[in-house]
Specification:
Blueprint (H helix, E strand, L loop, with lengths): L25 E4 L5 E6 L5 E8 L4 E4 L4 E2 L11 E4 L5 E6 L4 E8 L4 E4 L14 E4 L5 E6 L8 E11 L5 E7 L1
Antiparallel strand pairs: 1-2, 2-3, 3-4, 3-5, 6-7, 7-8, 8-9, 10-11, 11-12, 12-13
């Protein structure tokens, strides 16, 4: 936003992907606008994440595309949500009825899946998701399911400890 001209300034060139992918179906920005997630839910679907490079005045990719299960109509990327700092990403795959959360690993410069898939219940088609600012809570929405009832489920990222004393983390119903 340019306060003097009272107009929006476009950052870099428009981002494009070949037709058929439904690239741009869903988008999410980090708090400061420096990280952008773009959903492309055609077929199995994918999400591409970009970081603004001010020195080059262009968007550069953060890691490789996050893709849905091959050979399916999962439609990963139909909805996307970034944490405020852009280091956690939630993506809905309505064809599979799940949402997945990924964390950015600075050391390996890659996205890794955090825990298992989250759902709004068996057989429900997720159409909306929201990730809390700090990326610790996930809400998934499934309106007008087969039984005519809309459902929203909320999960939180929780540390776990099994019977042997090993620790891990998982998404747990809040």
């Amino acid at each position: 936003w340019d306060a003097q001209s009272r107009d929006w300034d476009r950052l870099g060139d428009a981002l494009e992907q070949p037709s058929g992918s439904d690239f741009g179906h869903a988008v999410s920005l980090s708090r400061d606008g420096s990280v952008l997630a773009v959903g492309a839910p055609g077929g199995s679907g994918s999400v591409r994440v970009f970081r603004w490079d001010a020195s080059r005045a262009s968007w550069s990719r953060m890691g490789v595309d996050i893709v849905g299960p091959h050979g399916t109509d999962a439609r990963l990327g139909a909805a996307v949500s970034l944490s405020l700092d852009g280091t956690r990403l939630a993506a809905a795959a309505p064809g599979a009825g799940v949402a997945r959360v990924f964390g950015w690993d600075r050391g390996s410069s890659s996205w890794s899946k955090m825990g298992g898939d989250s759902t709004a219940g068996a057989g429900r088609v997720l159409t909306s998701i929201a990730l809390s600012g700090d990326g610790s809570h996930l809400a998934v929405g499934a309106p007008d399911a087969d039984d005519g009832v809309g459902v929203v489920a909320v999960y939180r990222w929780t540390r776990t400890r099994d019977a042997t004393g090993s620790t891990g983390s998982t998404w747990e119903a809040a």
